User: Fold this.
Amino acid sequence: MKYSGVITRYLEHLPLPKDVEPVTLLEGNTPLIEADNLRRELKAPCKIFLKFEGANPTGSFKDRGMTVAITKAVLDKAEAVICASTGNTSASAAAYAAKAGIKAFVVLPKGKIAIGKLAQALIYGAKVIEIDGNFDEALTIVREVGAKTKVVIVNSINPYRIEGQKTASFEIIENLGVAPTHHSLPVGNAGNITAYWKGYVEWKEKHGTTLPRMLGFQAEGAAPIVHNRIFEHPETVATAIRIGNPASWKQAVQARDDSGGRIEMTSDSEIIAAQRLIASTEGIFCEPASASSVAGLRKLVAESYFTGKDTVVCTLTGNGLKDPDTAARGITPPLSAKPVLADVLKLMDLN
Ligand code: AN7
Assistant:
């Protein structure tokens, strides 16, 4: 069967008219990869699966929500959309707005956006406005623009974003045949943990499956939910989740508590170590924020939190190619040789 994107695939679960014409880049249907090498490396008793959302058209999970939000905006005859972003939302909004033929404005924290994401927003043709401030300040401005103009906000405070993102849970249940016992993912603005939980709950109501415990991980320097206080100056190498006052804070706490899960934090060095481990054991290059799902899993393994009966899905939310600078930093640089066989063989050091 021809794959036509998450709206066509899951239309009966989405608040869109049956005859809708989706604005789609054929997002979704991403790989769910069993990670046995990683499991051995972590000495985890449980099964581990990685949901690689970096395989989406703009390289992050945001595309699932953006196809729905932009399709709705077009239905409502919007001429322009706007978002605040740590990078991925802006890339996705810009791409889907381009496909729809409408304008996109993006407001970004200056100097804190991975280069690939900024390049995406620009090449897809968004009007990019950088502010001398952080994501939370950008979102405050965007909320005001939304209140004062007809420009439609496509941050995850737009409920259509959450509706689209919940389809990842559906895919996981369909791939595994059951829901996992635990679902681990990074938490920034907390839209995605909200969306996944909504997806699992709705699937259970329709098809009577079990529910996973939701495990969310913030970065140590940007851990408002863990500490139950706003972070005025969030800081982390995982710039995607450099957020001090998440918009979906309450919903994330509810997902944690209703599922019997946890929201914890991981340090920048744990995040970078996990990013390298995922790449070197499983051949998957995710961005730093995404790796916090595995860094967090690793911490819980050390607490003997999991049993042999558990199946954990970690969402790898974004593609590592978006942020090559961070990946290359601190890694052994390439070896250098003269353009002759003997020199290359010497460096290969086969014996
Ligand atoms: C790779 O792009 O907030 O908890 O403005 O890009 O739903 O916010 C990105 C967030 C995790 C956190 N992983 O998801 C934005 C933005 C990656 C991300 C998150 C983001 P939420």
Summary: DSSP finds 15 helices and ten strands in the chain. Residues 6-59+161-328 form a domain with the Rossmann fold fold (CATH 3.40.50.1100). The beta strands are 32-34, 47-52, 80-84, 103-109, 127-131, 152-153, 182-186, 213-219, 262-266, 311-316. The chain has two domains: 6-59+161-328, 62-157.
